[in-house]
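Open question from group meeting: does this chain pack into something compact, or does most of it stay loose? Before anyone orders reagents, we agreed to write out a predicted structure and look at it together. Recording both the input and the output here so the notebook holds the full record.
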Amino acid sequence: MRRLRFGLLGFSQGFYATTYTKSLLNRPDVEIVACCDLGMPADYVRECAFVSAEQFAAEVGAELLHDVDAFFDRSLDAVMVTTEVWEHRRYTLLALERGCHVFVGKPLSFMAQDVLDVMDAAALANRVVLPGQPLRYESGLQEAAARIHRGEIGKPLYVRLLLNHEAMVHQAWERDPARSGGPLGTFGVYLFDIVRWLTRSEFAEVFAYGDNFVFPQINSEDLIHVNARLSCGALAALTLVSTITWPYPFVAVEVVGTDGVLRTNYDNYRTVVQSARGAALGEARYCPMGAFEIGHFVDCCLGREAPRVTLYDALQAARGIEATRASLSTGRPVAVGGRL
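Structure tokens returned:
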């Protein structure tokens, strides 16, 4: 059996780079061929990934390269792009030009035009590009989506999503909104993609409030609230809290429908469905976020599965982020970009 030749490109998104690559060691159909640190200083790599590039490459049995052209000369079938976010477009397009399937660490981009460029290139190359979105692989949210799509709570009328994550402050590139997108660019993909997924509806308009309360060094809002109207007529309230530095549930969702209410948190029970018929509890939850994401990418490359998250999903998330940024700047409601 020929194994999929895999390469890691960049260590900036350290969790993705190290955790996801190491998980492929358990795949007999994958060969980890090369890691490329893009010639970044050793201190930079260690700050981002908490390990040296040399040590990590040795750990996964891969060749360490510093030059991107040499990296792509290794006849790779698939690469994972985990560079700084503002560089995702550049390296994804380069990988597609070299005939590779691509997994891109979250978010692919916080700018819609970047995603459109990748969409065109992926179609031309006939290759898989899987945008990172770990929450799509979380068992509780998968169950929540299935229950809503089966009509258990009727037609969704209102969605409340609360996301808690400390602002990215540890690396210089993460503190720079032009390079990381700030908290909104980094985590906005969760806000917009999850609501779209659960409701099967697009965002029509957003009205956002936000300010910087705790982390002035990020030069961006660390607490943002978005009121939104969906194309199905439902309303949504999205809150991104990037100020909490103590343990707290990462995500909480409540969907009110015509026939019931569904709630799910990242801990406790997978779901709680409450209606006139009573309350039904899902199973106790244990699902490491993102544990199945890179495996799904491999299966997509091998033609065994279709992508659960598409470039169109990434595009709509980027459009939601851009509209929210515009609303924060103008203090007015802003229409979200339409469909292709």
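Observations to bring back to the group:
Residues 2 and 29 are 7 Å apart (CA to CA).
Residues 311-330 form the longest helix (20 residues).
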